[in-house]
Task: structure prediction
Amino acid sequence: MANTSWPVAESAESSLPVTLRSAVRQEFGRELRAPYETFITVAVNGAMMSSAWFFLPKSLKDKVFTLHGTLAFALVLGLDVLRRARNECARSGCGEGGCSYR
Result:
């Protein structure tokens, strides 16, 4: 059976923000409103990745993380958060209003 919910069709009343300022304001307004799913997901994932980066033994850390060094920490953390967000987006069908992770 085909998944008819993807891609999500835009409704006639939805439109893209005209300026960057209005786009950022709209995105922050969406993210800082209950149920705070994205904020909680990013915070928990960041805490888990940070804990693993600093507290795992070296032998296990080498198996989990392929990149090493100071800059690699930020890269690994950002890529993990993005990967988890994209997986959540694909699993949920992006809900209403489309997907911001495409």
